[in-house]
Amino acid sequence: MRLRILAGTMGLILGLAGYAALVVVVAIALLPQQTLLDMAFYAAAGIIWIWPAARLTRWMNQAAPHRPPPGASP
Q: Which of 16, 45, 54, 58 is a plausible cystine mate for 23, CB 3.0–4.6 Å?
């Protein structure tokens, strides 16, 4: 379980950094210099990343089968 949380946390941090870089590159390459259009694009991009982050968080929190520690009485 701890490895799943560690892997998910690292994936979330690296994935979000990569996504942010991709959003900036797309915005610079494709959008004209209009403040309102930029604001709308970044607002949409800021909301869209929530879906994969929520799926990753759900995966991280999936409970492993409970196993009592060795030597513990039931």
A: 45
Q: What is the pLDDT of residues 2-19, one digit of tens each?
A: 888 899 999 999 999 999
Distance CA 45, CA 64 (A): 33
In the numeric block, the tokens 């604001």 are attached to 39
34 within domain boundaries: yes
Domain that holds residue 25: 2-60
CB atoms within 10 A of CB 40: 12
Count of domains observed in the chain: 1
Does any domain span residue 74? no
Residue type, 54: A
6: closest CA among 14, 48, 19, 70?
Answer: 14
Predicted structure pTM score: 0.75
